[in-house]
Amino acid sequence: MTVGGRTGRDASGEEWIEAAADDRWLRPSAGDSRREPRWGHPDGMQLGLHPLSGPRGLLRIYTPYLDQPRERLLNFIAVEPIPAGTIERGYSELERSRLDDVPGLRMWSVDDPDDERPRTPDAPARGVVSVDADGVERLTVHIGVERFANGAHVRVTAVFRADRPHEVSVAASVRSDSAPLGACVLSATMGNWARLRRLELADGAVTAAELWPEYRDVHFADHASFPVDRLARDAGSVSVSAVTDEMEPVAATYAPGTKEHWHYVGRRGVQTWIADDPDSALVVQVNGRHTYWMSDHPIPGGIAFENFELVEPFRDGRAFTFRVEPMDAR
């Protein structure tokens, strides 16, 4: 028997039971039917997996409090491990699966972090609810990721805090058979949808137009990196935010032929990465695009950031926090 949740459809149109509010948390429904892999705060930040809309091999970040429809995601988080002694990343959404020979590595959810068996995404774990030493309730979801072609084998742990409804922490941990890692980048990969153009550093903002004033190609502009001493500090943590430079992104005029899914909806949000106890080698990186992904349609207003990430020497289980606050709340 299935408990809770409305009937909905996944990205392919197949029917399943939608995640539903269970006391404080939004979680997959209980039961044996096909269920939506989605977790988080009922009215706050939420995380989802394929087959929710979008490419496989990516975490989905939803922010309904920005007045966005339930199915509209704000950003993706990709898993990009770098083996020790190399500089080449694995790309969770671009590799072809060796489990079922389709694009994008398979991801699934479990409640036991030591359970490495691949699962189907439509039979998700519900997540584990606990209370920490400070009396704060948390929801923890462990996400299995199939092995990368470069030998990296990791899982990602996502943790929501009851007292912080607009953020989630994400941490990568290696499996026992993984190649040693130099880093594992958890990259927010779709800044172009919100048209993020201002990177807010401790010593002032840097804009995409300043970084790549002449770039007009259809590929990615090169990464720009900024060291940890240029990030804002608060006690033992550092943070960096990316924002749009548009007052009303919903009013943008798009080039003819731009697909509807690139049209921004909802209120503006401030997207922020936070790192506690940062390594001295930590950097924030951004790259940019002049056109939307897999198209030659220019982004309204010019080049914008696409990937927005913190890069740090690998520490097993090291968590980074991704926060999105309404821009008008600042």
Task: Give a concise summary.
With 330 residues, the protein is mainly β. Helix content is 2%, strand content 40%.
How much of the polypeptide forms β-strand, as a percent range? 35-45%
Number of helices: 2
Termini separation (Å)?
A: 45 Å
Q: Rg from C-alpha positions?
A: 19 Å
| Overall pLDDT score | 95
- Structural class label: mainly beta
**Sequence of secondary-structure elements:** EEEEEEEEEEEEEEHEEHEEEEEEE
Q: What is the count of β-strands?
A: 23
Number of domains: 2
Helix coverage percent: under 10%
Largest sheet: 11 strands, antiparallel
Low-confidence segments: none
Shape: globular
General description of the model:
This protein is mainly β. The protein is built from two helices and 23 strands. Strands 9, 10, 11, 12, 13, 15, 16, 18, 19, 20 and 23 form an eleven-stranded antiparallel β-sheet that branches. It has a five-stranded antiparallel β-sheet with strand order 5-6-7-8-14. The protein is globular. The mean pLDDT is about 95.
